[in-house]
Amino acid sequence: MSHPQLPLLVEDRGAVRILTMNRPDKLNALDTALTRALFDALVAAQEDDAVHAVVLAGAGRGFCAGADLKEFADLTPANQKAVVARADLTTRLHMLLPGLSKPIVAAVQGVAVGGGAGTAIGCDMVVAGTDLKFGYPELKHSLVPAIVMTSLQRAVGRKLAFELISLGRLIGAEEALRHGFVNKIVAPTDVLAEAVAIAEVWAEVKPIAMSATKRLFYRVAELPFEAAMSAGRDVNAIMRGFRDGDEA
Are residues 183 and 220 in the same domain? Predict the structure, then answer.
């Protein structure tokens, strides 16, 4: 059932929470209302002990067409404050995705461009439909892919990242899989089910172990080798105190 009045739909399936961006007529373009709803819902999932894993999906034929350009089409000094506030909110959203202690998988069908592409790869895993159209076409609209640039550079090498942002070309599912943007390709109608299946596996893991794993995973990515190994050693020693006595 469609709920056009709600920018984001929230559904729990056991310990898995599904967040569905719900602006299908706009290809789930991110305006301030949807961005705020998504940020708040992720924070709520973080704070809910009953939620062990999260799925992020998009209603309709596309995952997310990026920022809603019409929201600030008439840019004047009067709405400049709102523009800055929106940029701050978007930045915090993209920082929250890897920072969330609970794992999150994106279920991506159709378009995932600009901020939609950045949101997808900001998740821990991505399931994509065979109809995927992925990329960063901002420069074609005389815009800078500023906030999404960081996650893109961390996901792939610099040459490919600059190619995508400077040429604005869109890539399909097979190329996205080859470059490591997505983990698995399925039929568009199977994307959500496959993402939920991944989240259900995560949900079976003790939350304290999953949280420690995800936090360490992103932490070591930014550390020099020796410091990363030391961080791993420390977490290894700490987490052994939470074992049930089973063999590791």
Answer: no
